């Protein structure tokens, strides 16, 4: 299977650069589980697709303003993208961007009283020690939201609110679980009235979600690793639903990857872990029956995941339909509701 099998053309005008005024105003393309029928709708009508007893699983990670902009003592501009905290206090694994490679002991000033010192470098990764009276407060005050590279504009105060789900709880992501951006408290209440219940997992989305696949053969790709947590109550709800023949629906690809990575012999295991699970056509799903997701980049691991759930041809046909009908693509774009194919 070739990466080029998941390629498609996308006009620049269909890339959503800003969120809509209302979260639930996005469009929703619903696929069938057995044929190529598509239903053109709106996210705010998502409760129509709820079946009584559904368990909808949300990723409650919280995006941190992880992009820091500063200067070296020499005056050169530096951008640092925080990836994840290390074991030592205030030490972070990060990516650094500068006109020259950042060497150990390089000092970077982000703001008055907020600095970083490069501890080590390995390839594109650096470890930095952040120095401030209150490091967490400094990151919140001076950090920028790490918008995806295809949103080619400066971040704004609006992004701090809108590149975040309403149910975000646990800080640590450097990219949003974007399917969840559409949901509002009012919409979730409507879904509960229709018979849905909600469970949470936490997967801190890393920057690898935006990295292009560098190989031609899908089987040769190695996924980035991310940390996740499955609470005991979530495992209980999901396992009971599966035992009773009720649906488990992942809100977003990160929720889906967590559920599948943390399952064994068809049961979801509670606890913390790390996963580099790569889901592409041919994968046998253990837990997930349907997926709410945005429209993804061509040749990305995310479109491969959706194709694993619904079939490559059906997914590419759905993308063709979306392009013809001017759906908005990527993080701030519209969504799809994708039931698992009867063949997956």
UniProtKB/TrEMBL annotation:
It is found in: Cytoplasm. Pfam families: Queuosine_synth (PF02547). Transmembrane segments: none annotated. Keywords: Cytoplasm, Glycosyltransferase, Isomerase, Queuosine biosynthesis, S-adenosyl-L-methionine, Transferase. InterPro entries: QueA (IPR003699), QueA_dom1 (IPR042118), QueA_dom2 (IPR042119), QueA_sf (IPR036100). GO terms for cellular component: cytoplasm. It catalyses: 7-aminomethyl-7-carbaguanosine(34) in tRNA + S-adenosyl-L-methionine = epoxyqueuosine(34) in tRNA + adenine + L-methionine + 2 H(+). The keyword S-adenosyl-L-methionine applies. Its EC number is 2.4.99.17. Pathway: tRNA modification; tRNA-queuosine biosynthesis. GO terms for molecular function: S-adenosylmethionine:tRNA ribosyltransferase-isomerase activity. Transfers and isomerizes the ribose moiety from AdoMet to the 7-aminomethyl group of 7-deazaguanine (preQ1-tRNA) to give epoxyqueuosine (oQ-tRNA). Monomer. Belongs to the QueA family. HAMAP family: QueA. This is S-adenosylmethionine:tRNA ribosyltransferase-isomerase. It comes from Mariprofundus micogutta. The lineage of its organism: Bacteria, Pseudomonadati, Pseudomonadota, Candidatius Mariprofundia, Mariprofundales.
